[in-house]
Predict the structure.
Amino acid sequence: MLQQEERRGYDNKSVLGGVDRLLKNVIDRIPLSSPIRGSILALPARGYASLTPSERAEWIRSVGAGSTTRARTSTRRPARTSPTKPAGSLRIAPGESGGLATPIERLSIRGTTAEKIKKIRRNVGPISTVYDLVTHYPFRHIDYGHLAKIATLQPGDRTTLARVHTVDAPFRGNRGRPVRAVLTDGFGRIDAVWFNQSWVANQLKPGKEFVFSGKVGYFNGRLQFENPEYEPATEETLEDIERGRLIPVYPSTAGLPQRTLRRAVGLALTGYVDLVPELLPEWIRSGLNLEAQQEAISHYHYPHDADDYTRAEKRLSFDEFLVKQLVVLARRRLWQSGPSAPRLVADPAAATGFVASLPFQLTNAQRRALDQILADISAPVPMSRLLQGDVGSGKTVVATAALVAALSSGHQAVLMAPTEILAEQHFRTVSSLLGAADDEGPIREAKSSFLERPIRIAHLTGGQKASEKKAVRAAVANAEVDIVVGTHALIEESVEFERLGLAIIDEQHRFGVVQRDLLKKKGQSPHLLVMTATPIPRTLSLTVYGDLDNSVIDELPPGRRPIETRYVSPHDRPRAYNFVREQVQQGRQAFVICPLVEESEAIEAKAAVQEHRRLSSEVFPDLRLSLLHGRMKPAEKDHVMRSFRAGENDILVSTSVIEVGIDIPNATVMMIEGADRFGLSQLHQFRGRVGRGADQSYCLLLADDPSDEARERLDLVVRIQDGFKLAEEDLRIRGEGEYYGVRQSGLADFRVARLTDEDLLAEARRIAVKLLDENPNLDGEEFRELRHQVSEFAVSRNILLAFH
């Protein structure tokens, strides 16, 4: 380590915490007779840190670690060094140093510890090399300079130094029971609880002092730590507290204490951070005032102060933004540099005739979006456009106008939806808009007034009869069908198009990049339009949909009333049920959404069945209730929706399967059970299933015991009708990692960057555009590492780039 200090120019940063920490840790293991021990003791009272660079160089040579004695000392076993006191199991093994691809076992991490480290879940793959450890970034830091006394703790505080007073451990065989403890510091007491962590009871011994760090909240009217992390209050920890250090907290896994993981990361940093190659050319770093990569990584793990952390965060965030912007922009250029797309120039009479045939007028926002789409598809460059619109804004009408433009130019078009219910809804809507009869077959014919020939529209889903699917596939392959509306069944190999010119994907976030590309390959460079009724914050659209141009329908059709939204407390539940009954007695219909128990369609279905049974027998025995959930067969779902649409049932009890696309103008009440378990975007989508007729509609949010955060979310839905504003709030509250639908893309899985940092993202996009304009393949030595990371990221997401 002293040799590394020499290579760094004696800056006292070769060891996290400084060389004096290293010396303090090793001096007790140096024989009394050793001259090295004498050299250490001869340092000034303030240690190595107080020396000038030249004095440090002379002192290092005096202990035999300088460049003139390196050959003599290279065979010695190096002292164990880490940013915290060694536990005995973590050290660098002699003669086993290597590159960044060195396995973590080479750090002499014990087998069980190494296996636990490898189990840590990350969006960039498991931790297996020292580079993985170096770039395993903390998600927060414990500020040892701001420890609060228990008597002064408030909800939102995080850290205190306390002694364990009592521990209540689960009995053997009842490991699901939480571990509870009472903590004291002489100034007060506080409860602490750990869920699903039975081993905690064996580590917390009454009378022992620990630093506890976690979320302080209320339970039964008393303050309580919830699943806090804890560190033994060792001499070293107390020194960290005295100096007010920022200590990293890492994503971990069961049975792997933070102190153990911290030492492992510290060993990797100490021995290997200097090997991390620089990602950015100097002209980019200096232009944006970004610090060097190695320095940023070190400071992000162990900042000396808040400014250190801010500078490191800015640099690493920019790197993440830049890599992902290069991926989406390069992908867009690859798609548009391929074979020419068909020029879909709409017959003016057809386009005008279709709009004139509508029973309503298009809004200005709809016309603007349609003009942008028609301009794109009339060019030989393949369109790649995102059409955003709030619930009920009329995206389907705009999409249908684009479909008419495609078929009037002699080409076929396809509209793909993520669920069979939504595909059925689109099939019905498109058929109706084009004037086709509402019959039962999978292929309908519309004899419109704006085209000289009939329009044939087909429906294709996985749940159809084999004979129906075969007939549709044959008609599509022979160009006997103009428009096909369906689900994933459209991208199966057996589906072939004669002359596909336009592909439209609804609710794009439900599909992956691979599915989008498979649909594109059904034709030769067809134009692509993707739609979403989930409004997307601007920063997210630049990241997840950065390869698409953006059209926004930000205006609702005239005459649509705001949906009156109310929070219903437990004691108001009977009044809510009476209100639903009153609406039904007036000839209206209602939805009841069952709570999201967990990400399991089977469990959701069971909850819906139970709720349907309870409401039918106990609450609304005099009304007609139907049931809908994702485990039902397609024919059953279709029958339920047709019956409800026809008014044969008063209340539809459903899971989140009706989240998008369901259009029942007579439904005026949306009652959401367990509303606190849904995100803002989902609640807004549920609300959008009503308010589609001329009558006033209502959304009732039921939650028995919402947390403070959940209540804040519900209050936002009550207060805000604008889906775009709610989307921004959703991103602010939950973060991009949990934002609805983001995980499917993988393009917004950031480890450091935050999508709320709009200015830095804009800078990264500007630099990415400049780089690809000037150097499309990122050729040259200065871009070698950047090109490598872009390619690696793209390959991990199955994204094809031109310079792979």
